Amino acid sequence: IGTRARPDLPGPRGLPFLGNLLQVLPAVRAHRILELDLAWFGKYGKFFSLTMPGVGRTIFLCSPDSVEHILKTNFENYEKGCVFNSNLKALLGDGIFNVDGHAWKTQRKVASYIFTARAFKTVIAQVFESETNRVIDILRQHAHTNPDVPLDLQALFYRFTLNSFSLIAFSKDLHLLDDLEKPVEFSEAFDYAQETCGGHFTKPYWKYWERFTSRGRKFEKMCKVIDEMTYSIINEKKNQPKYDTPPKAGTKDLMDLFMEYRDEEGNALNEKELRDIMLNFILAGRDTTANVLTWSVHLLLLNKETASLPSPVTYDTIRQHTYAYATLYETLRLRPSVPRNRKLALKDDIVPCGVQNVLVKAGDSVMWIPWAMGRQTDIWGDDALEFKPTRWLEPETSKLKAISPYQSIAFHAGPRQCLGKVFAEQEALRMLLPMTSGFEFERVGSADVGYEKSLTHPMRGGLWVKVKERT
Ligand code: HEM
């Protein structure tokens, strides 16, 4: 409905009215949508097209030059767009992930002030150190008191990243590492809301459907839980006594920066705007890094490798740990924390795609699938499916290779490249190094694990391991 025929584009044949919906839905339900994307690239080549009611036409592209064109060369022509925005609105509102233009630019500019070298060496370093030590203590204690009882590392990483991010961004300790038995109501609600919002892309009539179903009712309830915690942090911050002397630049937290922001007319952000910003940053700061930590341990275990390298890691020395870096990027190649992504074309455009060009019409969506791109032999070589950190290193010098960000796309690229890239690298490596060099993990259950339906890429069912301290 509302899409014109495009016989020039390859892709699976759809049905009248429904387009390809019935081919996509079973894969979504079975948590196998990424495998379906990959299979279709295998069948149709570097690009193919699907249509879905409520979304229109989506052109899937699997080539670094296409991604570079969309994310940088013709950046102005591609935006998140109204489908993306409305599908994620209830959760992300008008936060940075869900907006374009002026609203995006402003949020990016304000937030960039917390990612300074000075902040990395002071506030951020202190929090990473203290929170990593807390996790190491938990593992040590568990190894000694419960060596035969499995522990879910993924759940632990989620607590670690959320607690660390909250300390840095809102100066608030959520005490998530104090008692692992205590459920984290906010996290459960946030996971449920993400799954529901992600599902909107394959449920054209979700707005009506959710009005009458238990999922819709639960979603509403979960959004209330999320809002309660978010607004309570905002109010707590607002009611804090003002500083006698204003904090120096580099010591303000993210919330301070957004609360102090004034637009051209001198207006401050209202509570709803602050809520949206905060939740987008929680999604960025909690889920993505917890995902890469989980998949790193999983892949290291599967390949019987250890990322053991001398600790401690500091802001200045971290890039010397090249093998650990390579492990992180190799994990992100196979298990990108944002495995699928899309944008909407504003005007007709010609997108390069390897040896071909693709005509994208105004109103089409374009999609790139980092998960599938990481598995392409023409991009990564015949061993693309193997976990091989050394592919990131120069064979002679073991220095990190310079690989284009459009090929290694896990952190996005171009003007909207991930703002927290360095933050995430530091946090993940500071955790991974002492963990893998200090402990041995034995997987419990099958190594053939899947992923949850989400906006990010959590492991389905968690990563359950027995823990032993290395001697
Ligand atoms: C391994 C960890 C991470 C990965 C793989 C990752 C990946 C990404 C990706 C793919 C995007 C683009 C999303 C989009 O389509 O809009 C993005 C954007 C962003 N990321 Fe990250 N991220 C990570 C960690 C973080 C952390 C820890 C933070 C904050 C502390 C952060 C902050 C942001 C922000 C603010 C944006 C929006 C940038 C913009 O739209 O201008 N990220 N990230």
Automatic annotation (TrEMBL):
The protein's name in its UniProt record: Cytochrome P450
Example GO biological process: lipid metabolic process
GO MF annotation list: heme binding; iron ion binding; monooxygenase activity; oxidoreductase activity, acting on paired donors, with incorporation or reduction of molecular oxygen
Family listed: Belongs to the cytochrome P450 family.
Binding residues for heme: 418
Organism of provenance: Saitoella complicata (strain BCRC 22490 / CBS 7301 / JCM 7358 / NBRC 10748 / NRRL Y-17804)
InterPro entries in the cross-refs: Cyt_P450, Cyt_P450_CS, Cyt_P450_E_grp-I, Cyt_P450_sf
Cofactor: heme
Protein keywords: Heme, Iron, Metal-binding, Monooxygenase, Oxidoreductase, Signal
Xref: PANTHER family: CYTOCHROME P450
PROSITE patterns documented for this protein: CYTOCHROME_P450 (PS00086)
